[in-house]
Amino acid sequence: MKSRLLREIAGAVIIGALTSSAYAITNGTQAGAFLMIANGARPTAMGEAFTGVADDLTAVSWNPAGLAALSSMQTMLSYAAWFADTGFSTVSVGGPIFPGHVIAGTFYAFHVPRIANVPEEIEAPVDLSEYAVGANYAWAMTDRVSIGAGARILSTDIRQQGSPSSAASGALLDLGFLYRSDNPPISGGFVLQNMGPSLKFRDAEAPTPFWARLGFGWRAYRDEWLNLTGAFDTSFPVDTRYHMQWPDGGIAEFYKTSIKGPSQNRFNFGFGAECWFADVLALRGGYTVRMGSDISSPSAGAGLRFTVQPFVYTVDYSYSFWGALSSNVSRVSFAMRLLPGPAAPAE
Q1: What is the pLDDT of residues 171-186, one digit of tens each?
Q2: Domain ranges in the chain?
Q3: Residue 211 contacts residue 175 (beta carbons within 8 Å)
Q4: What backbone phi and psi angles, to 5 degrees, belong to 305?
Q5: CATH homologous superfamily for 2-116+123-338?
Q6: Spans of the chain, pLDDT less than 70
């Protein structure tokens, strides 16, 4: 019974995680793996290098401390056309509740078609439902330093004809830090994501994707016509059971270095840049390197911003090519931001 359940979990999770933008399952199964799919067209186009740049609503997935940059109420919808006809959607709403304090809420959904490509005499069709609901808070401690936290309720339901439902739910926590400086024009962030206990299915447990991210940003040039930003990120799995495994070839074989643990086996590095023209059109590009894997991906994208009082609208698109899989992933995001009201006259 237990081995059958594990096959069900693996079959359901593998679509979302085996080719996930964050990692691949190597020697175990993972619950809530869809939460590690990159959220938002803008961060993805920048090579998934956004931890130290986070300054819009996608910060709920990259670094909750970045939400402190929101100056008015905003909403964002994002969709990724993932592999094997699956899809990843998010809906976020957030804004300041009073100066220096911002809250946001997000709904995550991973869409999976019925897993029915296995002959029924071997295995009955599998239906998977995965979603999460999150709440975030950010505090601008100073004009340079902000911290943030986020909590998510994750739910996974695996159903197979002729078998009892295999469902599990749990709570996950994110903690983030962000530093921004105008002189020099740099930023840096650190975040711990998806901290929480394993999800308990009917006869088995599956760990959640507990990862750490470290990122930096550089506002290389900025005036009223041109804004250029560069970014770098690294991410890796975190667990007290993990240990570093250095390859026999030494530093020359560093690209094979991995984190060896029960569920994942990867270091990721991302590089990216964004250039805004007159604060209306943005062009982006980046590259994500997944150490210990042949799955690395270049990415590119664009954004368009326009104002129709009293809102500012932004539409973003990104395209990532997964060469090792001979496939690609497209993402689109739509954001609407309320223009801040006029300042109150001095008395």
Answers
A1: 999 999 999 999 999 9
A2: 2-116+123-338
A3: no
A4: -125, 135
A5: Outer membrane protein transport protein (OMPP1/FadL/TodX) (2.40.160.60)
A6: 1-29, 114-124, 239-266, 292-294, 324-326, 341-347
